[in-house]
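Worked example 4.2. Below are the chains of a multi-component assembly; read each line carefully before continuing.
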Amino acid sequence: MDKPEFYQRLAEILDVEEVKPEAVLKDFDVWDSLAILSVLAMADAKYGVSIKAEEIRSVVSAQGLANLVEAKQK
Amino acid sequence: MKCTFKNKRISSIITVAPSQEYRFDDEYHYFKMTEAQAKRFKKMMSLDRHRIAPPEVCASDLCLFGVQRLLDAGVLKKEDIDAILFISQTPDYILPPTSNVIHGKLGLDHDVICLDINQGCAGFLAGLQQAFMLLELPAVSKVLLLTGDTGSKQMTRENRLNYPINGDAGAATVVERCSDGKTIFMDVKNDGSRYKALLIPGGGYRMPSSAETLKLREVEEGVVKCLEHIEMDGAAIFNFTMDDIPPQIEEVLAFSGDTRDSIQHFFLHQPNPFIVTQMAQKMKIPPAKVPNNVVSLYGNCSSTTIPLNVTLNAAEPLLAGTRRVCLSGFGVGLTWIAAVMDLGPLDFCKLVDYEGT
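Applying the procedure described above to all two chains together yields the following structure tokens:
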């Protein structure tokens, strides 16, 4: 998985210039149900994985999210 | 579960929308959205406007208005109706069945089957399957399939998750026996273990209506509801639409011997435009074959999105000739049903506004 590309896609969803791996998801203004839906869609469309909302809510950082998607790919 | 039917067809479809149209731009303040939040939500969900029935108008009123138009147009005769199916989650009463109320209002004779089915977004297909099964009876040659919902009565306007995408509508579809020799292919699936993904917890007999079930609470920012209102696990529904529906459509295409190319229209249920776009991409179906404007213009009207989709987007070709179509309904239950069939030439195919009675 191309991590920088993943963080760029996440930045687009979160409506910011860039997202650092250590960034805490719930610190973003737009981290809401729409953003979670967008992440589910991105994971499915770009990485071919189905993640559950509970799984997203259980991760804290952008890196945690990237790891979750990567782990599902295997 | 796979099933096939032969020598049956849809002959007429009329969809009826309430005339009251509301624009998202005029409503977002009810959802406590800032302008920026509203803009983002509107863009992502491609929202523009929707139709909401006034409090005194029930789903059955919309359906009955449609039936009257079919009678007036001469494409349906009262004496030919052998069965009435009413598919809804917003019936007139707890009892009797609304199909009986409609039977009475139409003044039909006694030799008619009346059946209500509690179904939602897969409701058009659940009803179609039931109609085809009834048509296997020698005594039944014409079924009036009524789908309708006034979902706005199961939520407050101050609910940003459900209200902006909801629409109220009803439809009347005539399903009849014919001798064209063509086969209709269907696949029906259910998963009751996920029944909580779409649920109205109160007001039934598991949790009877009380002051407590009617108490309004702001459960999260911009979401005011009581226990007798719709509860939707949006993420679970999204997972469902991505994980379960594309494989079923693949399955039904394989079953009928069709491909993405041989199907001319994919009339999918439309929960919201975002989901339909994602599904079409995932299935690699060209967007031109998957109309996706029902929610933006009318709202998600549950069992009626498919007839609304057909009458809004394909009336002309379906009145003129035959189209190879794939229909897919999915939602509450959870239930998901897909079908492949030839549709048209139809005797009647129209979307009209409700004009009261």
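Take a moment to check your reading of the output against the notes. Chain B touches chain A at residues 40-41, 44, 161, 233-236, 238-239, 242-243, 274, 278, 281-282 (CB under 8 Å). Chain B has eleven helices and 17 strands.
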